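Please fill in the sequence for the structure shown.

STRUCTURE ENCODING:
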């Protein structure tokens, strides 16, 4: 694990955001989500963890794990509260969130509360993830939604998991919903725009834009 993150582990009573995503590519919607979570939930740091080999099929072209990692580093470099971890991209097998959370718990011990931040649509599938029940014990969730998203779907899910896994009342607040206007930007749309030679400027950081053009990604 990266040195800076290990240093963080020495502190007590931390609130750490775990920004999970394929980041194919990372864009301003992701960055605004992380910053908003940092402020709204009073997090100490946010660790971006790009998925190496995603557990589910990805629609369209998937850039290499190394390219997605480097683009995430470029995008977050100027923010001192954002870290990026190679923990998933260095794995040569499918990455399951439970394995990442178990590892993070093993290094942070009980010193940190973990908030897994990701897209609401990904969270809606959580009942199909590996070891859902244990995941719910290891972290809280922040579900980022695009404007106009039907939040009732997430509320139904919360009710279902509370009932199915016999979670106590306080665990009812296990999935928080955060609407992010900037999530009108999507990786799928950016990939489509690149294929169609449409502009992508201002949808993602300039450095990321230059990186993907230089490496001819998503053509
Ligand atoms: P996805 O299905 O590609 O994305 C679903 C939606 O969420 C998309 O609209 C996506 O927008 C958005 N999104 C993804 N990450 C986001 C983030 N960090 N912040 C805001 N919006 C985000 O999902 P994914 O990116 O591959 O996976 C999300 C996370 O869930 C990853 O950490 C993955 O490892 C985990 N996961 C785990 C399991 C498992 O353990 N079995 C299964 C599935 C997913 P964009 O396309 O614009 O990013």
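FILLED IN BY: designer on duty
SEQUENCE:
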């Amino acid at each position: 694990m990266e040195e800076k993150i290990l240093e963080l582990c020495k502190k007590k009573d931390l609130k750490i955001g775990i920004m999970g995503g394929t980041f194919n590519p990372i864009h301003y919607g992701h960055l605004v989500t992380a910053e908003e979570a940092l402020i709204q939930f009073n997090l100490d740091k946010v660790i971006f963890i790009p998925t190496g080999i995603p557990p589910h099929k990805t629609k369209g072209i998937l850039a290499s794990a190394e390219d997605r990692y480097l683009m995430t580093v470029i995008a977050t470099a100027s923010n001192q509260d954002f870290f990026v971890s190679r923990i998933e991209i260095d794995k040569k097998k499918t990455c399951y969130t439970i394995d990442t959370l178990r590892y993070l718990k093993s290094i942070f011990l009980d010193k940190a509360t973990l908030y897994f931040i990701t897209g609401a649509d990904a969270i809606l599938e959580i009942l199909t993830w590996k070891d859902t029940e244990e995941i719910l014990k290891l972290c809280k969730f922040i579900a980022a939604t695009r404007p106009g998203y039907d939040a009732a779907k997430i509320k139904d899910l919360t009710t279902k998991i509370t009932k199915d896994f016999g979670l106590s009342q306080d665990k009812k607040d296990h999935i928080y919903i955060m609407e992010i206007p900037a999530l009108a930007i999507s990786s799928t749309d950016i990939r489509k725009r690149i294929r169609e030679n449409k502009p992508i400027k201002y949808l993602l950081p300039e450095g990321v834009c230059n990186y993907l053009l230089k490496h001819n990604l998503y053509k």
